[in-house]
């Protein structure tokens, strides 16, 4: 907080007369205010008399694939939406081939080219530098989409950026490129940092219409075990699973 100092004429005269330094007014701060960030919430439309349904969404940021999760989805014929980066695609051709071979299960969407937060202001989020400009946001989005198509996938219609946080102006930029911004309503694994029991509890919270976000690129993390338990628990409780393109409601957002 900047404090303004006020001195009367007498005080200034006295200070000068005894050789004291006279304070000079402080310069206005040049530090830019922290931008308002939005983390969109997304749910799927509820359908009467069809029973509870959820949308499982997974981020594939970089690294490898968690076969515990991928195998569970395939073996149990559970649909989901996978957000992949160009970085992940470069090293996981076999896993991507499995997804492409099961188009009834896997909807492939855009997680960006280099896993750079799609924020058009220079800053850091969780230690990651943001895109920093509208041009860089567009490059991150389109670079991810081009990588998906180059690998044999369809052009994506949804985008989810690294950290899932945005400025309102970045969201407008993404939408102007023809994409919907994918939020969520339940954070399933807190960036794959939760333990197995914590993840299972998050999944157990799910209600009809929820969109759950988790990660499918951390095979060494305990969180993957919890994701598997959570999925199978939902299935045992009679939940159905849909992809985002099957049924979604308008996006809303909350600011931080």
UniProtKB/TrEMBL annotation:
Gene3D superfamilies: Glycoside hydrolase/deacetylase
UniProt-listed InterPro entries: Glyco_hydro/deAcase_b/a-brl, NODB_dom, Polysacc_deacetylase_ArnD
Signal peptide from the UniProt entry: 1-20
PROSITE patterns: NODB (PS51677)
Molecular-function annotations in GO: hydrolase activity, acting on carbon-nitrogen (but not peptide) bonds
GO biological process, one term: carbohydrate metabolic process
Keywords: Signal
Domain (NodB homology) ranges: 52-242
Its biological purpose: Is involved in generating a small heat-stable compound (Nod), an acylated oligomer of N-acetylglucosamine, that stimulates mitosis in various plant protoplasts.
Similarity remark: Belongs to the polysaccharide deacetylase family.
Protein name as catalogued: Chitooligosaccharide deacetylase
Originating species: Rhizobium glycinendophyticum
């Amino acid at each position: 907080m900047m404090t303004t100092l006020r001195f009367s004429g007498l005080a200034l005269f006295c200070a000068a007369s005894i050789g004291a330094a006279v304070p000079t007014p402080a310069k206005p701060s040049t530090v830019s205010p922290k931008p308002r960030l939005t983390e969109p919430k997304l749910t799927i439309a509820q359908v009467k008399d069809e029973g509870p349904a959820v949308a499982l969404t997974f981020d594939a940021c970089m690294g490898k694939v968690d076969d515990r999760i991928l195998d569970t989805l395939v073996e149990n014929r559970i649909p989901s939406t996978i957000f992949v980066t160009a970085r992940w695609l470069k090293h996981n051709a076999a896993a991507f081939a499995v997804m492409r071979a099961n188009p009834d299960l896997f909807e492939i969407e855009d997680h960006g080219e280099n896993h750079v937060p799609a924020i058009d202001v220079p800053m850091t989020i969780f230690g990651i530098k943001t895109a920093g400009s509208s041009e860089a946001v567009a490059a991150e989005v389109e670079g991810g989409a081009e990588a998906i198509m180059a690998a044999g996938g369809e052009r994506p219609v949804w985008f989810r950026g690294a950290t899932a946080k945005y400025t309102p102006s970045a969201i407008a930029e993404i939408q102007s490129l023809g994409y919907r911004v994918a939020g969520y309503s339940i954070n399933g694994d807190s960036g794959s940092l939760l333990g197995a029991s914590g993840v299972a509890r998050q999944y157990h919270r799910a209600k009809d219409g929820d969109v759950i976000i988790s990660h499918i690129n951390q095979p060494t993390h305990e969180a993957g075990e919890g994701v598997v338990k959570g999925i199978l628990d939902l299935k045992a409780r009679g939940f159905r699973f849909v992809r985002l393109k099957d049924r979604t409601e308008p996006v809303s957002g909350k600011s931080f």
